[in-house]
Amino acid sequence: MKNIRTKIIQFFILSCPEATLQIEKQLNGEVSLLKKIKLRCHLAACKWCHAYNQKSILIQSALHKIIHKNSKEHNAQTIDTQRLKTDIEKKLKNNPF
Asked: Which of 86, 41, 73 is nearest to 19 (CA)?
């Protein structure tokens, strides 16, 4: 009975390495419905992966905004990497988890 219960839990709850992989895939829209459900279950139980998910969302959002802003302003000129770094660091410091 314990073995069946363990298998059911392992089916619905991802490991942390698998969860972080699915977080990155989800940010790029590459996750199936079943994987999304499994990821939600894991994130509800694991505070570390939940924090990783929140930071990944923040970083991706910041990068998209900065790149979009820079491409509009400079029309395909190179992006100032130091400015990107400082903007991301500010956003991470101002958004405690």
From this structure: 41
